[in-house]
Every structure is written in structure tokens, then in C-alpha cells.
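Q: Start with the shorter request: fold the first protein.
A: Done. Sequence, then structure:
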Amino acid sequence: MTLPIGSLDHSSEFPLYRQLYASIRSLIEKGRIPKGGRLPATRELAGQLGLNRATISAAYELLEAEGLISGHVGRGSFVAGGARRAGVNWRENVGSSAPSSGAPASAPLASFSSSRPSELLFPLDEFRETCDDVLASGEAQAILQLGSPAGYAPLRRYLLEQARAEGVARESDDILITSGCQQAFHLLQSILVRAGDNVLLEDPVYPGMKNVFQRSGARLTAIPVGADGLDLHAFERAASEHPRLIAVTSNFQNPTGATFRLGARRSLLEIAQASGVIVIENDIYGALVYEGDPLPSIKQLDASGDTILLRSFSKIAFPGLRVGWVIGPRPLIERLTEVKQWTDLHTDQLSQAILLRFAQSGRLERHRQRMLAAGRERLAAVMDACRRFLPPEVEFTHPRGGMSLWLRLPEPLDAGELLPRAEREGVTYLPGKYFAVSRPETRGLRISFASMAPGQIRSGIAVLGRIFKNELERVRAQSPLAEAPAMV
């Protein structure tokens, strides 16, 4: 079969395989290649177009990733149906309207670099209704006045009551509203850590957490994180040196996606309490459970009540409103509030009042359920794509929720060195070096999947899989250990 492919622009900023992919996609969408129709073999189409077979294979991989074609060993590739049938929205995936000519759009193919929810899921109509409710209330004038640095009092009461009903907060606990979890870490560092103190951090870890303690002059000790969470043996050894505190992410850790098992949570508490180590639990992803049942938080398991818990609306509602909170013993919250007042005399009550109304009206829970459904679909897409498109030598975690997973490339590949190549092909990610505390993370990289549609995820992972495979084959071919040809 000869495909009516138009001329490809070898001087374009867009790779040839993406131009070819867009052209074939256009033919499928217009019905010029019928459902069930067989595509030319890669060798045949390469000869027709004067291209390398690898270029044809890359284009076919993207088409298969979006469910447009299906490949069958020994038979070839066949049209499986349009993008709508595969549950993929081309305009949504690319981020702008695809040109009628079939040329690739200029937006990135897939951005795995930002751990945030998709703005396409934001319930704007319900949010507008909530804003109207708040501004029409008798409290509007008071809400628009200067607010307490501790936060909007009705929201504080609501969150504390919720936490007590959950068994997370005790009568001796109190709550402070913060501008996201980053401000919470900064405040905690200000009152708990002095220069030279030993602070235990996960490795790899979210850079914002590392930076806030590093800038305080603290001595950072890295505790490795694996697929099942924190390395408890390493923590126990480090705890014997009497560190000041440990900061951990119990659910769907950023960047690895790892979750502490129930036994590990209890063991961590036992070790910390025996050593006098303060535990800060960062639980901003805990409400995003896509598989299985949620586990009790570390603070919920802590009979002493000393664990400090951080949560946020940023991952389950609207990140731009910047509303998080800290739950901890009342004397600690009083000190945090005093420190917060030094730099933040008052607080943004309007955002907090809107989020309170959004929660009390039931709209937040309805939105969270939509987020869970979308997250479940996107997690399934990224896991399936990793299994299908990544070389078998690439290791990856399997999170049950959250927004990210962790890839580790085989030696001697370097994720940072391969990033520019991926960016040229419209795919971004964050290399492991940004998350490292002490261990070199040259082979690691974070894939954040929550902000993209499933088809976009599959396309992006297909690109990365081909780049990693090609680079692995190249370095192995150049290795002096490569098998020499037989001299016969």
C-alpha cells in the first residue's frame, strides 16, 4: 500500500517522525485509510519516503500509543479506529488546534516535569457559584478585612473538627493555616532547627523541602527511599546519632510515588520516639488514592500526639489559591503563629472562605471524586505505557495514587544528559539530580502524569522509550566489551 504522504520538511524544528505521525493521523481521521486497513511495513514506507526505518518506527509507536493503530507480530500494523474511539482528544492532548495540513502543533507533546493537577479538570462553574455564595453572604465585609495570621477562624474550626473526626487530631492539638506546605516547612525550620542541627530527609526528596532546611545551615542526612518507602534500617542507624527531626512524605512521595506500609509507619514512630526525634509528616497527596484503601497517617498512629502533620488543598482543589495547614501540639502552633506574624501580619481570608464554602457545600468532595477517576485512568495509562514502551532494563515504581513515579535508567545512561534530546522531541521531565540529597541520582528521573490526558501520556512515554532504547544500544555498541564479529 502506498500512503499519500505529503512532503516532509527536513529543515523544520519538528522531528521528521512527528511530521510523519501527524500526516498519517490526518489520513486516518479523514477516513482515507479505512478502519482495519493495513499500513505499509516500516521498510516499505522508509523506501517510499527516503527515510530511516527508525523514523517510521517512531511514528508508528506514537500512533499505537494513542490507540490509532495496532501492531501484530508477523502481520504488520493496522488502523484500529479514530482518536475519539480510543478515548483521546487530539486538540486537548497537543494543547492547541492541530493545523488542517496535518503538520505538528508547536505545543509540547508531553510535559512530565510539573507535579500538579490538570486545569482542564477544574470545575469553574461550581467555583464561580462558590465565590458568589461567599460574596453574597453577610460575612463578606468581614472576610475582606484584615485577617488573623493563624488563618480564617471558621476554616480552622472546620479542618480541626474534620481531623478530630478522622482520629488525626487530639484535644491537645491546634491548627495553623499556611500559604501551602512550603511556608509550613519554612516556619517549622525557623523554630525547630538551628545551624548545625542534624535533619534527616528522604533521598530522593522534593527540592523545596531540602532547600528550606539546607538554607538554615542544618546538616542534612539522607535516608534512602525505595519502592516501599523509607529505608528503616538506615533511619534507625541515623537516629542513633540523635538528629533534631525527620521530615517524611507518608503517601505517594514526591518524586518516587512510594507509600509507607502500615508496619513501616509504626516502626518509624517507635524508632523516632525512642531516639527523641521530631517527626514531620508531609501528607499533601494522601487524599489522592487510586488503588486500594487509604492507610492511617503517621500522626493518627502516634499515641503521644507529637507528630506534626502538613496537609494542603493544592493537590485536590486549586493550587493557585495557596492554602495549606499544619496540625500539631497547641504550644507548637502558638509558636508557629508568632513566627508567621513576623513576616505575614495578616492572612488572605477570601481564598480560605471560598475553599471552606467549597468544602461545606459538597462541591470539593464531588471534585475530588472526579480527580480520583481521572487520576486512576492516567495512572493506568502511564503504567501501561512504561511496560509497553520502556526498555526492559529501565526500572520504575508503581504508585497507588498521587501524581508522580520514578524511573531509574540502566548504566551508563544519564537522565540529565538525555533531557535535551527529549525536549527537542517535545517531551520534558525532571532529572534525578534535582531531587538528590547525598546519593548521585544521575540515572533517576521523575515522571509526573496527573496534568495530562492518557493519550498524551502514552505518546510521551513512547518517545522516551525510544530515546532510552536508542541510547542504550549506541553505548553498548561502542563498549569494548561488545561481542566482536567472528573471523571466518
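Q: Next, the second protein, separately.
A: Sequence, then structure:
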Amino acid sequence: MEPLTCSGTCALAGLPIQLVFQEAIHSVTPSSQPADLYLAPGFVDLQVNGFAGVDYNHPRTPHGEIARSLRAQFAIGVTRLYPTVITAAPHDMQACLRNLADARESVPEGHAIDGFHVEGPHISPEDGPRGAHSRQWVRPPDLDEYHRWQDAARGRVRIVTLSPEWPQAPRYIESITADGVVASIGHTQATAAQIADAVASGATLSTHLGNGAHQLLRRHPNYIWEQLAEDRLMAGFIVDGIHLGAAFLKSAIRAKTVGRSVLVTDAAAPAGAVPGRYYLAGQPVDLTGDGRVVLAGTDRLAGSALHMHRGVENLMRLAGLPLAEAVRMATINPARAGHVPGRTRGLVPGERADIVQFRLAPSGEIDITATWIAGVRVF
């Protein structure tokens, strides 16, 4: 493959640049040409349960449909993602991971799947913290089950979300992090001591902080404050304007700092689709006219319909972040938090040539114009 070039204003640095790249970025040089297009590292989504009407949590989702959902995400600037498998029966979770791993190897778009995120089943069984996860299948941490997940996923489980409230959690966290897997705290009602033990054992991330929680919490202490205050934890935030209010979002990012904050979509099958009935891990969910994904017949959120580029817009609009910081939360930070190789330094020589080009309207709206993955244009 011959080297390719593209030019634009670096969204992270604010300066006109020219990139030369093949599979990796070869050079980044200043450009004297004024640019109305921006260049950024491709977006990285660490938590996506489905997209474009496709549920990653069904063990027989056709590979062609998975490929279609990936192409739909390329069009919104996503270049690397962790399909996320949530709480279900043990054999179903393994089957979903196996099916996704098979799709990764069989479809041309599969190289965008850099790994997998297993969210549950080792979470709080209580209403509120459990979120939309099925109570029937909540169970304690089990290293034998973790190894079965890795066998099914061909060793590509990269994040496991669990609650530290289980007595087995510290040993479990020590074991999976020794494998290089990220232990993330989520769907929890853990005490301050249990959260501290989880961090001491190797937990480094909070899953969609501020969600998967009780509707009412004591002022202090509580498990949200404890995670916000812990500097060794990075934190994911669902920035769709629905899951989190602007005041909490601003305060949480200030507490974590932008450098430890990560944009995630937590997208489910209805994302990128029309309002109506869909499924998440066998549970019926509805996409409402105002963009909420809820368990059918309830007002309980069950993932989101968020697109990553809209999340970047929302970070600027709701949290008041400049473009560079919003883009960082969608690119470098998730790559760091999720151990995505070749993606942690931005647009610099030697990094993977995962690149997104876009226009930014005066209104703050982002229009994706091109996406490259490992030097290949995919949109």
C-alpha cells in the first residue's frame, strides 16, 4: 500500500497539519494551508451493546448484521470498539462472546473490534444499582467462568465490570488484572472500604459513573463520591443528555479531571435505528421518540441511542469543554483506560493510522467526512 496523505486542523492541538500514513502514521508536519476540516484520532468506544438495530447480546446474531452495524459506526467516526456482553445465563454469555469473536475473524470490518467488554454478571442484585441487568442471572465472581469467557473470546476479553461488594471481588480483581484485563467498578452499592479494596487489588476504571445507581442516595458517604474522589480510577460517562444532567456531568469531569474522563455510548441495538421495539440480551427494549432506550413497559433506561460524534458535541454543549478536550475523551482517554494498543498518544508517528476527518459547524455540530482504520478508508 502506497503512503496516503490528508490535511486538516488537528482537533487536539488546533494547528493545521499534514499526515502521511499507511497502516501506521509515518509523519505529522505543519501545514501552511488553511483548513476547514478537522483531523482527530478515530473514536474509541469501550462500551457498546449493539448498534443499527443489531444486538451483540444474542448468541446467534448473523455475522453480516454485525458487519453492517460496524459500518454504521465507521460513519460516525468510531474506529475501535469493545462490543459489550451483559448479564445473562452462563452459556448465553459464552455463546455471545464466541459469536462476536467468530464475526471479528470472518468479516472484513471485524478488525475494528479490538476486544470485548463483559459487563456483569458479578454486579449488585439490588434494584437501582442493577440497572437493566436481569436479576435472575446476577452471580458472584467466578474465575473459572472468566476463563471460559476468555476461551470463547479467543483471549480478547479486555474489560470486566463488576461490583466490589462481593467478598470474592479483591482476589478476582487481582487475578484478571494480572492477565492485563481492566477491572472496572460498576452497577454497585459497595461501601467505601470495598471500593478501596478493589482499587488496591487493581481496579482502574468506573463504568458509566453516575448511572446504574439508586434513585436516592445518602449525601455522604456514597459509592459515587468515593469513585469520584479516587484518583487511581478513570471514569466513563454516558453523555447523551439523558443519562446525566449537565450539572453532575460538569462536576464529575472537574473531579476526575479531563485526563481521567472517558466518553462512552453504552449504545444498545436501537442506536442508529428508528423508534420502536428492539431487544437487549433477550429483554424487549423500546426506543422512544425522544431518544431514550427503556425496558419495554417501564421508564428504566436500558443503554442508550447515543452516537459517538454526538457525544463529543454534547461534551462541548453540556459540559462546556473545548473541542480538544472533548475529542481527547473520545480518543486518547478510552484507549488508555481500555488498554487499546497503538492509540494512546494521538496523531503522532508510530500510532495506528485510525483517523477521523470532520467539519465543525458554528453551532457545534460535527459532520464526519472520512474515517480511516489502520490506513484503510472505511467511510
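Q: Describe the second briefly.
A: The CA atoms of residues 238 and 264 lie 5 Å apart. The chain is about 25% helix and 25% strand.
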